[in-house]
Amino acid sequence: MKAPVKKHSVLVADDSSVMRRLISHVIKKLGHNVLTANDGNACIHMLNTEDIDLLLLDINMPEKNGMEVLSYLEANDMALPVIMITADDDLSQAVQCIKMGAYEYLTKPVQNDRLEITVSNALSESNLKKKVQLLEKELRQQDIFRRIQGKSRALQDCIEQAMQVMETEVNVLLIGESGTGKELFAQAIHSGSKRKNGPFVTVNCAAISNELADSLLFGHVKGSFTGANNDHTGFFEQADGGTIFLDEIGDMNLDIQAKVLRVLQERKIRRVGEKKERAVDFRLISATHKDFSGAIKNETFRADLYYRLEEYPLAIPPLRQRSKDIAFLANHFLESFCTANNIESLSFSDEALDTLGNYHWPGNVRELQNIVRRAAINRRGSVIESVPALAKTDLPEQSRELAPAPPSVTETVPSPAIQEPPGTAAPFSASSKGYGKEYLLKNAELQAIVKAYEATGGNQTKTAQVLGISRSSLYRRLKKYGIEKNLTLSVSEDW
Questions:
Q1: Is 159 exposed, middle or buried (0-12, 13-18, 19+ CB in 10 A)?
Q2: pTM (2 decimals)?
Q3: Are 219 and 239 contacting, i.e. CB atoms less than 8 angstroms apart?
Q4: What CATH architecture does domain 9-136 belong to?
């Protein structure tokens, strides 16, 4: 049985009503839909408003002739097969049409058999090109987004939006909770952009102080201030020709926001101690976990800067909205961990996967990755039967980010670097009198941080991984307790 012919939309543009009817009859006989235009302007209008698969184009038409329409297609990158039809048997004109992208050149009167074969071949070749382009797009997507794992519709929609925006120059604002993979998306967008061969510079906005902002962001020249022993290139200048990623920009100080806004407007920077301005060419991607509407209302974030950042907002879905990805990601992380640590092949039981699937994941993908690592380390046998670390769901949202159970409330904090609460003279514990539930939770949180810090030898990234929180979240907690200076800063993070 012969396979049914796929219906296509064919546009016939000719100033002769007789020719339009004759050609339309042949096209309909082949089983396709036909649209018609009687001049060049009408033809261009149809091309912009209808989904056209093939254009049969007369060269001699009023308003705009066929050559002008062909030039319009080329200038606007409108790729579709075009069959030129003319009463003039001009070889040089035919060659010019083919050079401009026409599929074929036919002279009037056109024989029906010749027209049928040419139309069928043009549509078949066009279909093949579309399949190849689709395959190339899928392979490119797999390569660029290979570090972002998941098959859920929510994630795929997000990747599709990133694919659409990455070849442009517009500023992208990534919005998502901690641990959703905002930096991975930023790197992927850069890798798929025209600037992929340029630098990708990451800036942790939460860690920039007012005192160092000018030097870090814009650079300085030797001798411009005490300790400036050499010229220094700032982050924006480092990103020249590439992409700058402003992570956690919602935590940026208001004074620094004004300086960043000026750079975005002028595309120029001035190093500290230097009079001349330097032009910088960069693409901006920023990220935040904060609600900007509240920050703008409270005047902690500039509205004019926000509108510069969110030329293209891209919301990264939290893991709880990607339930179909949880088991897939858990097995992926488990396999990667086993391979990296030369561990025998492990697997999760159905019960363990159900437990993972029913958890709400406040720490998102990063938390899942950490839970999988711990489960692999604490395994008994080759099958991971349970995930007990997820039982701590009765804690407040802030404390729930700390996956390990907090130490006993009667245990004294062992580090002399920890600042004691006002009014206490000795190392404190949660059993101290006069402190309520909020104090007990803070003390438990503090002790968990100290234990993780000591266990990792003071490495900030590893400490955050053990606790199941982000580096920026850990940094804020350390700053709150006055112990951030004791940690070794690290610039790498998987999620």
A1: middle
A2: 0.59
A3: no
A4: 3-Layer(aba) Sandwich (3.40)
Q: How far apart are CA 158 and CA 250, in angstroms?
A: 21
Identify the CATH assignment for 405-495 out of 2.60.40, 1.10.10, 1.20.1540, 1.10.3470: 1.10.10
The matching CATH number, chosen from 1.20.1290.10, 3.40.190.170, 3.40.50.40, 3.40.50.300, for 153-317 is: 3.40.50.300
Which tens digit of pLDDT belongs to each residue from 26-72?
Answer: 999 999 999 999 999 999 999 999 989 999 999 888 888 888 998 89
Rg (CA), the chain: 31
4 CB-side CA count, 13 A: 5
How big is the chain, counted in residues? 495
For residues 317 and 38, give the distance between their C-alpha atoms in angstroms, rounded to a whole number.
49
Helix or strand (DSSP H, E) at 30: none
Whole-number Cα distances in Å, 433 to 52, 420, 437, 439: 78, 14, 12, 11
Asked if 9-136 and 405-495 have one fold, the answer is no
Kindly list the domain boundaries of the chain, sorted by start residue: 9-136, 153-317, 405-495
Within 8 A by CB and 6+ apart from 470, the residues are: 178, 179, 366, 464, 493
Residue-wise pLDDT for 155-180, tens only, equals 999 999 999 999 899 999 999 999 99
Tokens 């967008």 sit on residue: 189
